Amino acid sequence: MDLLRTSLAASTMLASSLLTTAALAQEAAPSAPPQPAAEDTAAPQGDIVVTGSRITASGFTAPTPTQVLSTEDLTKGAQPNVFTTIAQLPSLQGSTGASVGANGTSTGVQGLSTLSLRGLQPIRTLTLLDGQRVVGANVTGVADVSLFPQLLIKRVDVVTGGASASYGSDAVGGVVNFVTDTRFEGFRANAMSGISTYGDNANYTFQAAAGKAFMDDRLHVIVSGEYSHEDGIPSAGFGVGNSPDGDGPNGRDWMTAVGLINRGITDDGSPQYLYRNHVQSSLNSMYGLITSGPLAGTAFDRNGNPYQFQYGNECYNGSCVGGDLSGSVANGNSLMSEITRLNSYGRIGFDIDPDNEIYTTVNVARVRTSNTPNPGFAQFGNLTMQCSNPYVPASIQQACAENEITSFGYGVNNAMFDNIDVHTQREQYRFVAGAKGKFPVFGSDWRYDAYYEHGTEITNINVYNIALMPRYRAAIDAVAGPDGTITCASAAAVASGCSPLNIFGGSAPSAAAASYIEPAYGPYQHTRQTQDVASIAFNGEPFALPAGPVSIAFGGEYRHEFYRVTADPYGNGVNGATGSSYSEEYPADPLLDTNGGNWYAGNYRNGSGAYDVYEGFLEVNVPIFKSDALGSANLNAAGRGTHYSTSGTVWTWKVGGTWATPLDGITLRGVTSRDIRAPNLSELYAAPVTSNRTGTVDPFNNRVVTVLQTTTGNPNLTPEIARNTEVGIVLSQPEWLPGLSLSLDYFHIKIDDAIASLDAQTQINLCYGGVEFTCGSFDLSDPNAAYVTLQPFNFSSIMTDGFDIEASYQTDLEGLGLPGRLTLRGLATNTRNYITDTGLPGTIPHQLAGVNIEATATPKWKLLLSQDYSTDKFSVRFQERWFSAGVLSNEYVVCTSNCPVSTVNNPTIDYNHVPGAFYVDFSTSVQVTPEVEAYFKVDNLFNRDAENVPGNVTTPTLYDVIGRAFRVGMRANF
């Protein structure tokens, strides 16, 4: 911690002092999209470092397609976090960010900036920094790119194909490699501030970097620091999205409470599911609702006065359309997490001689986020209240007597309590020591690259304003004493400090009741992860064939991954007698279950795990022919053996090649590979984590029950095996139109033994449909103690295929009598198929291509266009982002009448459409001086609204939830 404070304080002071006069200037080196390589200033002149391969050789072109973002692309994106600019690439689908996971308590992804290729989730995309692994930012092992030194990024290579043979596990969807400027000299700075058109998500970013050479250009020292803050978009509370025109935080009128109503009737000719706006629960209300018995439908206003609840219409299984919508919580979560980043980085390199360097890097960074997963802590009709409860209004007590009942079912949102707040902090400490260079062997130069990396990630999650449910149930079970004093009915509860709570109405709880139910110390999870990597690689050209030299690369790597998580005793449980002392913050309480699971949500558990990996690889590039008549062709092949301490040895390979045809500018390329993804620490060793109690349909009894979902690991998992194939054609710089580059690539990925788990509702539905495999994972018999256990298994498969299209054109405008340069660029991804198959009896494959509501939503088309006009004095850029319309599910059968029988695999529905979206961004910059540039950026220029989807407000991986956003800043480059 002292190191973090010292390093971050120093970086912040440096940035503050230097940014008073200047900000970062853009580099003027635009990328040519289809060309997958760029020169590395640290490598000998003429050698090309290609992320898609371990071969380093002059003129080498890898067969694996690679998309490149240059410094200019990143700076003109003008984002507080470069992650946002990168994630807009069409091939990247399902990436997380500040707007993803903001509706969760136990997901652990709040504010986590991770990249996902092909919609295969971040766990199947390998993210590297200068070709080196990075310690995971959570127990899934994914790297948080917001912790990288952003001002020093020279380019980002996105390898859109499998690369396990070259880089090892996780590179199933591809690789994203952040290449830094290891020879940077001078000073850069950037100061930026922004706000949305709705007056929220105010943000500001300060960055500075400096580099200098000493000792006759042999010693190179680079430092950088960064501070960035985004306010996020907070919860708007109860009833959001239920006005006639929709409403949301700070005037976002696009938010409408959309839901699917399950009629529970499958064979009457009408659709089973109804798509409706303004859907609300009929099992609770903002200040309380009697849900069963002769008094059902009696609700209570803020003052505790009973009234007849307005259910609306089309009521089925706990949901209605319209009616009293004031207590709806469906759209009440944060739209975007608040996020604050501190980042410091340093590199020292020393040239032993002109061809060899030793170096060390230090990266110390921190990210803090906060979000509200939902307002209150709703009870969906699962409470049983006694008529004799002294808080029950006299008129209701009288009605109880008249109807000869002593209790009734009850649901309430508990709006008298503050909203739940989840605070997450991630700290990363990463240290690398390495050497690279070349040496002569038998008349040819051999290059080497060796490094050792140690990374530590410390994550703390703290949840505030959340209830201990055993205490809550004790507090609402109130009785009147002999003297008329209201107290808790349980003597044991009274002895432990219970103070009664009135949940009939919106009266604020007493300080004693509030602190008893929601203690100051809520759920917490402390995670420590470490990663140790030792790697060495060699490559050279041992001999030549008539068509050119043969290149060989080989090397080995050792990796150790470890994690330990510690949770609070109320969530995790304790060993020992009930009366034993837990701690000063979490004292023993006889009401609480010593096995844990006492919180409304955020019931984290202790856990730990580790594994070791030993790897060796060999790659070879063989020139096949080279002539004026035939052009030139090369064959590229690689193999890797990997031994996991958890699951044994597995082999990966790739075979590919390129043919630069004699036709002007045309190259053909293709590659096929066997890739793997090993189960991560979370999948293997995750201790049971209990998440939100959620309303779930019980088809066995045709009712809605509130279930406790528990996710746990599986130490018996084995690696996923993938087959990845890509073939394409490239047109680059033809003589008839210099400056033009085009590429078209077909991709096909098939993953077997994919690690997956089923969601709670699916497990229940499959069991109801006769799939016994899922029946032992839940118990719905007691509505007050219903639970579902979620666990990963190697039972699934994934297949996706489609096309990547890329085009760029650059030209000077002198021929038109205009100064400057015009750059046009377009990238598109067409996903033809994305099919998942559990392989379980009674199930069918699911086609997810065109489904726009999942966390890994994969529209059939995504497009990114840009038009840039730049001179020495100013620049103007427009950018367009578009994705195609989709559906809720490709398995739905759409009908309004004469519907076939609705089944688990093909349910009927009356509406199945999710609109696409088109966004326009604008940016401009002006050179104030040769070193200082002012810039202005508008994202979502026309304020295109996001779209609502059932159950999740919107799909933040696709839609822009912020709206029109303005940013202004200054950059300097000295």
Automatic annotation (TrEMBL):
<dbReference type="InterPro" id="IPR036942">
    <property type="entry name" value="Beta-barrel_TonB_sf"/>
</dbReference>
<keyword id="KW-0732">Signal</keyword>
<keyword id="KW-1134">Transmembrane beta strand</keyword>
<keyword id="KW-0675">Receptor</keyword>
<dbReference type="InterPro" id="IPR039426">
    <property type="entry name" value="TonB-dep_rcpt-like"/>
</dbReference>
<feature type="domain" description="TonB-dependent receptor-like beta-barrel">
    <location>
        <begin position="468"/>
        <end position="941"/>
    </location>
</feature>
<keyword id="KW-0472">Membrane</keyword>
<protein>
    <submittedName>
        <fullName>TonB-dependent receptor</fullName>
    </submittedName>
</protein>
<dbReference type="InterPro" id="IPR000531">
    <property type="entry name" value="Beta-barrel_TonB"/>
</dbReference>
<keyword id="KW-0813">Transport</keyword>
<keyword id="KW-0812">Transmembrane</keyword>
<feature type="signal peptide">
    <location>
        <begin position="1"/>
        <end position="25"/>
    </location>
</feature>
<dbReference type="InterPro" id="IPR012910">
    <property type="entry name" value="Plug_dom"/>
</dbReference>
<keyword id="KW-0798">TonB box</keyword>
<dbReference type="Pfam" id="PF00593">
    <property type="entry name" value="TonB_dep_Rec_b-barrel"/>
</dbReference>
<keyword id="KW-0998">Cell outer membrane</keyword>
<dbReference type="Pfam" id="PF07715">
    <property type="entry name" value="Plug"/>
</dbReference>
<dbReference type="GO" id="GO:0009279">
    <property type="term" value="C:cell outer membrane"/>
</dbReference>
<feature type="domain" description="TonB-dependent receptor plug">
    <location>
        <begin position="62"/>
        <end position="175"/>
    </location>
</feature>
<dbReference type="InterPro" id="IPR037066">
    <property type="entry name" value="Plug_dom_sf"/>
</dbReference>
<comment type="similarity">
    <text>Belongs to the TonB-dependent receptor family.</text>
</comment>
